Queue: 3 jobs
Job 1
Amino acid sequence: MNLLDYLATEFAPFDEKPFNPVDSAVLSQFCMVRAEGVVPALRERSSFLDLGTIVENLLSPARSAVRFADALRAELYPSMFTGLDPHRVKENLLALAASPRFRDMRVRDYLSLFDTDRQTQFAAMTFVHRKDFAYVGFRGTDTSFTGWRENFNMAYTAPVPAQEQAARYLQAVAPRAPKRVYVGGHSKGGNLAVYAALKAPPAVQRRIELVYSHDGPGFKAGTFAPADWAPLEGRIHRTVPQDSVVGLLMESHVPPRVVRSTAKGIDQHSVFSWEVAGDDFLYLEGLTDGAQLADAVLTEWLAQFSDEEAAVVVDAFFQAVEASGARDASDLLCGGTKALALVPEAAKNMDPGARATLLAALKPLTEIAARRLAQGVSVLWPGSRAPSQPQAAERSAGA
């Protein structure tokens, strides 16, 4: 089973089966719906304007909240679904509208911010189940280069604007939310969920039942001290697929739970490929050898750069991406190795200084990988078949 199978078969209400990690993943994918003019906007959105961002959702419905069925507007479909798997996001919306478990849930407080100059892409919304609980969901990265640039910025800047906005958003919606609050997101959205929860005032932190990060990256070294995690100890649920790359990046105080995915390599980042067993994911004993190698190589490589050097390298990389002619991130990430090969080819047309910076940064990456493989580590890169797969273990979410 996957998320869509779960929505098609799980009919139990929340008072019979409590909110679970699969529910969080499902709602995290509705956060990938561009809901301007459909989901009522955050009332306090004016408090975000001092950040210099552009508020996209100025047209707000008169109602205070809507159901998932209210988003079924075919005239909006051409631009409504974002992310690297928009077709599945659309299917997820249809399934939520039909599901007896979810269809009466209300959605409100939509906020979408996009600022090319500040390299900011942020969106969030709040899902409310009666007066019982609220789920504060944060959008992952869309396909814009602005959104992906902000992701890269996280490696050398803390906080990035989206993280600041996530903290503001949670504080803004908490006073009007039911007492019990869940917070979550997928990919960058998972990072924002954890950041917002860790930065929340103690009164809000005490109301948080769980924070869900579905293959969300960690944080730049030094962003949080060990003491910062203490108030939410045991209440951060972090999941990654067995070949995870994104969810292993940077630092996290919370060890991940590994979910079995039916996809290969980077395609496992899509939660629609994650296997579901009953009312939870199907967990594995550990990551593949390939995922562990990739994490070790990237960690060692990134540690070679100061924050200033990393900023220069990231800028050079995106100059190459722009020169490649790619329209957005999907052109690169969904185009396979042939599309990615356009980037170094495009580097030939870059400014000589930027080209030299990029090539100099990439050289040690290949050297680190070659050295680790030469040391006798019998592993393969994520995306290829590892020598041995982890054994499945049907562990509960609390195991």
Job 2
Amino acid sequence: MSLCLRRYARPQHQLRGFHTSTHNRNLDAIVPNASRQWSYMPSSATISEDEIRRLAALPRRPLTLADLVRHGRPPLSEEALLSSANFTLSLLPARLAHRIQRLRNLPFIVVANPNISKIYNNYLHSLSILEPFYQKRITTLEEEEKFTEVMADLVQTHTNTIPILAQGFLECRKYVNVAEVTKFLDQHLRARIGTRLIAEQHLALHMASTPEARQHDPDPYNIGVIDTSLQPAKIVKSCEAFVGDICEFKYGVRPRINLNGTVDATFAHVPVHLEYILTELIKNAFRATIESGNEAHSIEVTIATAPDVPNSKLDALKKISVTDESVHDYSQEGLADYCTSYEGIESPINAAAPSITIRIRDRGGGIPPEILPNIWSYSFTTYDMEHAVNGNAMDDGLNAITNGGNPSSIAGLGYGLPLGRAYAEYFGGSIAVQSMYGWGTDVYLSLQGIGKTV
């Protein structure tokens, strides 16, 4: 079985107006002859409006690390592979439809921005190509093969969602306040984490279960995108080398990390998430250390493990921050269904997951009091915003590590720390910052794993 990674061609859609708005003159400047018939971007996607509304109204339940390993270790049997495909289909359509509705709720002048319009149409495209599959169960490997190709397209389509949205909201910052942008992006980007994980997990399980993959010894630790024996110390060292190279090239100095604590600790988590979070935190520590002239002082990174504590399913679920304020890609109604669905099933959710805490301590002078309240706001940055707008964000060498110099970088757009917190909190973790202004900063990253794997 082979996957065809391709991007479908998308037509350019014409803007056709909006309901009454206080931004009429601004809109007329960018959308001449608007007929004012739509409050959101029209599209030629084949999926109907009624279907989008139906899907968006469905309960969405939380995704856990236990969900991602529920089908077992690859290579999967035919039955398990089909079960993975149908489980994926049971989650994705409602999530995509809900994102479409949330984008439509933005002011029209914002959705009319070419970058945000592109994201809106990407979601419509993905939902429309899923429609033929979620109408019935996948029962054959041939159907699973075609579905997996669609999953590959979906992942590819949404690869650059974050930098595109970042640029779009930067260009629309005159029309929406910071609080509204922060709330929307926090919900949207957290929801994207779950959507992407669901799709990538099935892709990874599929690829590890092909006839070609079966000819080799299976990886004893990886279950799709999950590493069940992830060693945080190795990720810290990798990030130290990467950020250190950038610092040495840009500034001629290279801060060092003193790693201590339980350096041989392992737990089950998503490696790319931990790598992103640690890269952002170490980047901030290195930059503060260099700018304060204290590069002779090592950044201290301590790894600590918490003992397993027996817990109930519901208490374990509450670790996913199920509150009115933090709901992102599921609904309260979905939580009740989720608890019921696990009754009587032997699952890793039956025990509290082991947690790991990583403290990053620097001597970078701390965070100025006037900046501290804003560090969790999307689009807040101490870097010159006009440089980013004019395409000169790469002038800041350390910010450029966001994606290795890719032209679509979110460097300088202030997304690093809040997005890192979104990754940490998605599976019940957290990031806490303790600043001692004039001295340095302590950052505490706590992550939940899964109790056991089968």
Job 3
Amino acid sequence: MTTATRAYVSRLAGLTVFDPNGDRVGKVRDVVAALRVGTAAPRVLGLVVEVVARRRIFVPMGRVTGIDPSSVMLASGTINLKRFEQRAGETLVLGELLDRAVTIAESGRKATVVDAGMEQTRTGDWLLTRLAVQEPGRLGRRGQLHTLNWDEVLGLALSEEDQGTETLLATYRELNAADLAHALQELPIKRRHEVAEALDDERLADVLGELPEDEQITILGTLSESRAADVLEEMDPDDAADLLAELSNVDRDRLLELMEPDEAEPVRQLLAYSEDTAGGIMTSEPVILSPDATIAEALARVRDPELTPALASQVYVCRPPSATPTGRYLGLAHIQRLLREPPSSLVSGALDDLDPLTPEAPLAEVTRYFATYNLVAAPVVDQQGRLVGAVSVDDVLDHLLPDDWRDRARRG
């Protein structure tokens, strides 16, 4: 392995960290540096490494023996698994330094930090010696990119004002919603809200669904009411209902009024049920087919990438209308069985006659139902025989676990 003595921080993000035995320790999530007075290059203190259970720990740079394009190697010794907590005077390079507005000393032009280069000195210390900065572009084009020495850039010693998010979001682009939610929680509060504001509605909706309820409420409260309504429309109806249930009646009603009527109606229906019943934890948007639908149509519907694996495991056959609450519920068909039937056959010929749940079924009954029939999703049918939704196993687990289970997972 060729060991680098220079590295750009954005390229370190996501690299796998190995111990001397070649065992995987975790992944690099950020770099910690100490800014200095004046124009002296900051000292790199260490790496923030994400290990098992999404715990983020601090690894001092003195433990790093090698950096290459695909991995980081550590020296032998015990790793401190204490959760990383940022101290006064420390700066997260990815989380806080990127997207900072600066001034190029020579020209006086404004620019934005898009990357930072660190270099190992003869004494073995690592310093942030280089900065990649980009000038504003015109007519939608990117401006000129400069790679400068640290002391050729002004403004980093000042508190950040109107900090952008483009570069930081680029480092998060490949993260799934759960990992991005976790990364968001590790940022300072001000930076967290800036990133949330910059995410598009769909991405933010996915991330909110992975955050603890108090974090959801805080972030939603930083958005304008119209933007908050747009984000709620992008959320799964059951997640949106859970979030709105935590708000005051006034705030809840105002946001529901701002939502599109066809998006708000399923959420209103879910809010009518107690949160510890099948109706309170179900989604109102399972895969619903008419009796004359073919197996080929069913298989095409469950290929939708927006469906969770649990909801894609079966389809529900009902008489029109096909939106919940539907016409009379006829039964469900498991995708595993449909895969063994001719594509031209009707789904209604492969139905399971399993009794559905009722909306009032308590959580304990729902849990027993899933365990008894080895299901990952189950239909919920009202007294009129109409399908009103489906409960998936992830919804059940979410309500069985303690309210702070996401925080516990983050803390390890």
